Amino acid sequence: MHLYGTQNISKDGHLMIGGVDTVDLAKTYGTPLFIYDIELIRNRARGFINTFNKMGVKAEVAYASKAFSCIAIYQLAKQENLSLDVVSGGELYTAIKSGFPAERIHFHGNNKSYAELELAFDTKIGCIVVDNFYEIELLKEISEAKKQSMRILLRVTPGVEAHTHDFITTGQADSKFGFDLNNGQADEAFQKVVNHPYLQLLGLHCHIGSQIFETDGFSLAAGKLMKKISDWKEQFQFECTVLNLGGGFGIRYTEEDHPLEPKVYVEEMIKTVQENVKEYKLSMPEIWIEPGRSLVGDAGTSLYTIGSQKTVPNIREYIAVDGGMSDNIRPALYDAKYEATIANKAHEDRNFTYTVAGKLCESGDKLIIDAELQKADAGDLLAVFCTGAYGYSMASNYNRVPRPAVVFVESGDHQLAVQRESYEDLVVNDLPFSLNKVSVK
């Protein structure tokens, strides 16, 4: 069984995270429960930042917070001197409420509304990553009305396909994101913003996909962007000050995954950019990156209570847990794979094969097919590893199931980061029926 970060097994056979017994966490906070290993998140953040510092390259490491957003995680990001990537007005609002420095916030999104962009101006965030021509016009209108400057990057699609799932590959030509680098769209966007009195163009941004285990795609994309920057300098004397190469750094979900250490991705990016700076006789830009999953993904563990079991003779053994696709949609959406253990029997041999089903009223609500586990009994605790990214952030109230609590653990301490929703929370926005009260015959 692969253990992550501070995970270990206690003398009584329980899974420990951050020096805290998961059995005790279940007793204190109930299940389902998201548990975050804060020491692991800190180490990952420092791995990225320290590599830039050691190589003497000016940089910003922005947490791509769509992976997991809440006030507490934003405050942790602030502690670790990260910048922040937000993709909605809601994420931006949460970041501001958390006290995160607005000047270190970058705002993404392919269809930002007028109200969202106004909020970005009003809170004086550090940068907007511009995605399309419609957004350019909105930015011009807002900046001119407010007579307020805003730093921007142009997001481009460099035509680089990452070796990953089609649904999470965003750098190829056929993408809803960004200006195409190869068909003239990026040049047209550049012309529309480069001399605007209130829009300060810093440079280019790209994101080639997610769950990437190699550096070749990043190097190829960086080379394409640097060539475009060279062209713009030659033609228009434009000086690029920022090159944002996005995120997508992979993590280990199962034994089939072989991620690289943060410093390997960073070192290869820096090497490629420096080579292009030398070749094209450019000034060295700041390098920005946007790790999300690689900061919080394997730092998160979902803890469930096992309930019913079902045997389909000669086909399958099912165990059902008290959560499912309402707190982890990724297996149904992406066919995502996970590993797990029975947290209160972590010391025992995993000699049984079960399909882990959720409690939602959908036949596709299966968290893990053919999981190798210890013998499961009702009341046991199932720990599913690496659910820290796109678990809680994509959670829903489907079937009117309340969303789980989130707890942070570190050095033997634990803290509630997000309260469990109650049934009352589910109906707080519901209104009574008030149309025609006459019954229809």
From TrEMBL:
Protein EC: 4.1.1.20
User: A Pfam family this protein belongs to?
Assistant: Orn_Arg_deC_N
Instruction: Using the record's annotation, list all stretches that form the Orn/DAP/Arg decarboxylase 2 N-terminal domain.
Output: 48-296
Listed under GO biological process in this entry are: lysine biosynthetic process via diaminopimelate
Task: Please tell me where pyridoxal 5'-phosphate binds in this chain.
Answer: 248, 290-293, 390
Q: Which residues form the active site?
A: 361 (proton donor)
Q: Which residues form the signal peptide?
A: none
EC supergroup of this enzyme: lyase
Listed A to Z, the keywords are: Amino-acid biosynthesis, Decarboxylase, Lyase, Lysine biosynthesis, Pyridoxal phosphate
Pathway entry:
Amino-acid biosynthesis; L-lysine biosynthesis via DAP pathway; L-lysine from DL-2,6-diaminopimelate: step 1/1
MF-aspect GO terms: diaminopimelate decarboxylase activity; pyridoxal phosphate binding
- Reaction equations catalysed: meso-2,6-diaminopimelate + H(+) = L-lysine + CO2
The cofactors it requires, by name, are:
pyridoxal 5'-phosphate
Q: What interactions and quaternary structure are annotated?
A: Homodimer.
NCBIfam families assigned to the protein according to its UniProt record, in alphabetical order: lysA
What family classification does the UniProt entry report for this protein?
Belongs to the Orn/Lys/Arg decarboxylase class-II family. LysA subfamily.
Please give the function described in this protein's UniProt entry.
Specifically catalyzes the decarboxylation of meso-diaminopimelate (meso-DAP) to L-lysine.
**Name this protein carries in UniProt:** Diaminopimelate decarboxylase
List the source organism: Ureibacillus manganicus DSM 26584
